[in-house]
Amino acid sequence: MDLPDSRSAPPPVSLADVASYLPGEPVGTEYFTRFSRSERMAKNVMFRAPKARHHVDRDETAVDMVERAVAPLVERHGRELLPAIDVLLTHTQLPTNPVMGCGPEVARRLGMRPGWVYDVHNGGCAAFVHMMQLGRMILRTTAARSALIAVVQNTAGPVFTQTEIRGLAQAPVPGDGCGVGLLVKNDRAPILDIECRTYPEFAGDMDFGTGSERKYWEPGVGQACVTFTESKIAKVFARGNRLVPEVALAVCERIGVKGRDIDTFVTNQPNRLFLRNWRDALELPPERHPDSFDACGNLFAAGIPVTLDIENRAGRLRNGSVVLLAAFAHAGDFAAAAAVRWGAAG
């Protein structure tokens, strides 16, 4: 697909490679069905369970997951890759240490000495695209030449298998995993455009509590989890149906293509109905909108890079093709999309 280029644009930044890690063996839905308490909620389209998902072990940390996800990058690019990384951006769904992110420890574990280390807590399911935007901005405006993006989803095993949580309708939906991306200041696989939008009016609509008056950090009864009411589910569903196509098509318009002409559309993977509605909105056939939901569950922020890696390793992403990424976060307070001319195939 030929796209217009601009000779006056800032230095190009490429998504040079992606890799991922899924912990342990797949966990079947039968693990949860024996604990199910709400047949009515379980039939809601938001909570229809995938066939399988992966769970992190109790003692597996976010740093462990990043290290395992990065290993294929080292195999492909050599051991000299990591010490030369200038920028490290991390997003962790469940920080091992609630006071601080994992960025500095990731750098120590991987033998990195980056000049910029940022733990990015916001962005939710769209965090990978959000960090692409941040990484590109740093590479364009400084002497930095490379950035490593790492997103960790690690709540499925620790949170959704708790004795009071595993019977909830939403418990079987999440899966654990980690995805990483390598940004490089060159034009091999250029990021063509990025759109990030914040919707403050929807902030605070996602509830996190213990089912009692206890704050999550206080001792006592009740287990912490994100909770939903049916009225809020309906609002989130309507927002998600609208926000992802909006940001995706905004990017398409700026790069001069129609949604139906995108070669591959990779989104976060919350449930089957969102996936169907999003590809219908862009007028794309299923084979151009990869679906990792049944194999991995809802990977939240890791959904985009893990799905990208699955497609890339399967040889379904052709170098030179246009890949569109899009997602929305939380109850709709953030959405983001990015277009890349793919160049990470082997």
Automatic annotation (TrEMBL):
<dbReference type="InterPro" id="IPR013747">
    <property type="entry name" value="ACP_syn_III_C"/>
</dbReference>
<keyword id="KW-0808">Transferase</keyword>
<dbReference type="Pfam" id="PF08541">
    <property type="entry name" value="ACP_syn_III_C"/>
</dbReference>
<keyword id="KW-0012">Acyltransferase</keyword>
<feature type="domain" description="Beta-ketoacyl-[acyl-carrier-protein] synthase III C-terminal">
    <location>
        <begin position="252"/>
        <end position="342"/>
    </location>
</feature>
<dbReference type="GO" id="GO:0044550">
    <property type="term" value="P:secondary metabolite biosynthetic process"/>
</dbReference>
<dbReference type="GO" id="GO:0016746">
    <property type="term" value="F:acyltransferase activity"/>
</dbReference>
<protein>
    <submittedName>
        <fullName>3-oxoacyl-ACP synthase</fullName>
    </submittedName>
</protein>
<dbReference type="InterPro" id="IPR016039">
    <property type="entry name" value="Thiolase-like"/>
</dbReference>
